[in-house]
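Researcher: Next entry in the queue.
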Amino acid sequence: MNKFAYFILLLLMVSAGCNRESGSGKNSSDATKGKGLQTQNDNSIAAKRILIIAELKRMQQAFTAKDVNQIEKYFDFPLADSTMSMFDVNEEFDQVRKANGGKISRDLFIKNFNDIYDYFQMGGFNDLFKAVNVAELKDKGKLESESHVEDEGCYSFYIILVDGDTVSLQYGTNSDPKYREAHPDQEEVCGESAQQWTFKLEGNRLRFVKEVTAG
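Model: Structure for this entry, 215 residues:
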């Protein structure tokens, strides 16, 4: 092999080695960046969960005390009646709501809170918070519990579901399968019902989005 050919071959070998090192370095850099982004995302989710848990604990205290001044802070007023299925709460409330074009002011909410509380069976919030441990949301996206009473047609269910910034609180009653099996002659064994309240984390506070009633 002449000197010129040898020189060209040597040059090609050095170039190939550099390309391999460069590619390896790029892959390593991409992997590092990917891990960094994943860590940031994990930290962000963990931080949100901490805020959500703290907010749910404050909500639990507010409903335990039935403190309307704390409960109303989760709502942005005026509320559109399309976000809450309010019908026939009481005569005065319904008249004012209709006169306001379906809007529910803070004063109207506070003044009629006891009737609103009963209308939506808000005592279910207390049962929900007793049935599940909100601290477990640190590692779980869903908490659920059921309460069955022997020889009763209904059982109660409680669910908290977290999806990103959105928190869904659900409580209600359903037909007990064991009771239904033991009483096949009964067409209806339970007046089934369910309430779902959706909130969204905005900043460091949970804000009401929508309520849905079924049954």
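Model: The mean pLDDT is 87.
Researcher: Noted, moving on.
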